[in-house]
Specification:
- By secondary structure, the protein is of the alpha+beta class.
- The protein folds into 2 domains: about 5-85 and about 270-295, Immunoglobulin-like (Sandwich); about 90-270, Roll (C8orf32 fold), CATH 3.10.620.
- The protein is built from 8 helices and 14 strands.
- The protein has helices at about 90-95, 100-110, 115-120, 135-140, 150-165, 175-185, 190-200, 270; strands spanning about 5-30, 40-50, 55-60, 65-70, 75-90, 165, 185, 205-215, 230-235, 245-250, 255, 260-265, 275-280, 285-295.
- The strands form 3 sheets. Strands 1, 2, 3, 4, 5, 13 and 14 form a 7-stranded antiparallel beta sheet that branches.
- A hairpin with a 5-residue loop joins β3 and β4.
- α4 (about 135-140) crosses α7 (about 190-200).
- It starts with a strand and ends with a strand.
- The mean pLDDT is about 95.
- One of its GO terms (molecular function) is peptidase activity.
- It comes from Aporhodopirellula rubra.
- InterPro entries: Bac_transglu_N, Papain-like_cys_pep_sf, Transglutaminase-like.
């Protein structure tokens, strides 16, 4: 049975600079994109100070990008994105029609249908994710032959969760996938990059997904404003009949209505939420706050 949840999401990014900034140019990838399991009902972007120019446009992968420039002196920058979305999940019976993962590799390689051919671009290496035999061997040891792509990736997802240590001090945003794999430690970005490397090295199309994860306070404790978080996971091509299915190796689950996808690409570099350049500014201080609020 399909499940559906509705959310209001508030993502605020704030920079404070030790010295004035004369000019900044930035790109935001914080708008939800309509897709098979998500409907974006509204999205509002507020930028302070007001930009001299702003342009909304799609990138190569269909993510909605807000490019803006601030050309006046400022020592603080605040970006607040408020979205209302509905997220749904397919029922188990629908996923039971998935092909065996070994058969899927051959289907994608041949490009039996246009969607199979299009999925192939997510088989290749990307800037942050190299392909190698060590990644393929790691996955092959877990993914039993002749099992469906859903069952096989689910097994690998759970294995990475148990084999790796979640450690916010072990890696940073520039840590390579190879180093995270050797350390068997990291955060959601690292877990996702490693699993993508494993699956692509086998020949299975896999995408990097950025989004939000609804969190729950400890029992008996109040919910804290701003305590939800940005998150990253993977999306695997499961054949022309099913399409793409998402898995979260950080939490050892196939994603459900607690996961709200925003953008997709080959790896983190394609879809970092905010990037840009500044002239001046000295030393910046960054603060990020995320609220994922269920609504009727």
């Amino acid at each position: 049975m399909t499940q559906t949840a509705n959310y209001r999401i508030i993502h605020e990014t704030a920079y404070r600079y030790s010295e004035p900034v004369a000019l900044c140019q930035n790109q935001l990838r914080m708008r939800p994109r309509n897709q098979a399991n998500l409907v974006c009902h509204s999205c509002e972007v507020e930028i302070d100070p007001p930009p001299a120019s702003i342009h909304r446009h799609p990138d190569y992968y269909g993510n909605v990008v807000d490019s803006f420039a601030i050309e006046s002196l400022h020592q603080a920058l605040r970006v607040r994105v408020t979205s209302r979305v509905s997220i749904s999940t397919p029922d188990a019976e629908y996923l039971s029609r998935a092909p065996a993962w070994a058969d899927l590799i051959a289907i994608v390689r041949r490009g039996d249908k246009p969607v199979d051919w299009k999925a192939r671009e997510f088989v290749f290496a990307s800037r942050r994710i190299a392909l190698s035999a060590k990644f393929a061997d790691y996955a092959r040891a877990i993914m039993q032959p002749h099992t469906s792509i859903i069952e096989a990736v689910d097994a690998l997802t759970k294995h990475i969760h148990s084999d790796f240590r979640y450690d916010t001090q072990a890696t940073d945003v520039n840590t390579t996938t190879e180093d995270a794999f050797l350390m068997k430690a990291g955060v959601c970005q690292d877990f996702a990059h490693v699993q993508i490397a494993c699956l692509r090295s086998l020949g299975l199309p896999t995408r990097y997904v950025s989004g939000y994860l609804r969190t729950y306070p400890p029992e008996g404790k109040p919910r804290l404003v701003g305590s939800d978080e940005s998150h990253a996971w993977i999306s695997v091509y499961a054949g022309s009949e099913i399409g793409w299915v998402d898995f979260d190796p950080t939490n050892a689950v196939r994603t459900g209505t607690d996961h709200i996808p925003m953008c997709l690409g080959r790896d983190y570099d394609d879809i970092s939420p905010m990037r840009g350049i500044v002239m001046g500014g000295g030393k910046p201080i960054l603060r990020v706050s995320v609220d994922v609020l269920p609504v009727d």
